[in-house]
What we know:
22% of the residues are buried. The longest helix is centred in the first third of the chain and has 22 residues, at 12-33. The chain has helices at 12-33, 62-66, 71-86, and strands spanning 2-3, 9-10, 41-46, 50-56, 90-96. A three-stranded mixed sheet has the order 3-4-5. Strands 1-2 form a two-stranded antiparallel ribbon. It is an alpha+beta fold. Strand 1 (2-3) and strand 2 (9-10) form a beta hairpin.
Amino acid sequence: MVTGESGATVTPEQAAQNAAALKDLIAMMAKALVDSPEKVDVTEVDGNSTVVLELRVAKEDLGKIIGKQGRTARSMRTILSAASTKARRRAVLEIIE
């Protein structure tokens, strides 16, 4: 059993489902933004109370994911943060070149 940020107990199965849902959320957003959705790859790195989602896209689509002055990336991180709160996990988005 894992204790989430809110202090609620989460089973390992629930934690895995929550991490998969967060991964799917990021993949869906990224695929909607890029020209090459088949090259979108999201990898999850699981920690005790944190999941790190590594987002990889085609080099020519990197600017679309980051956006002007990082606004698109910041928005994706904000949405991920809100979703991870509901999932009782802390999630971090890393955009990998």
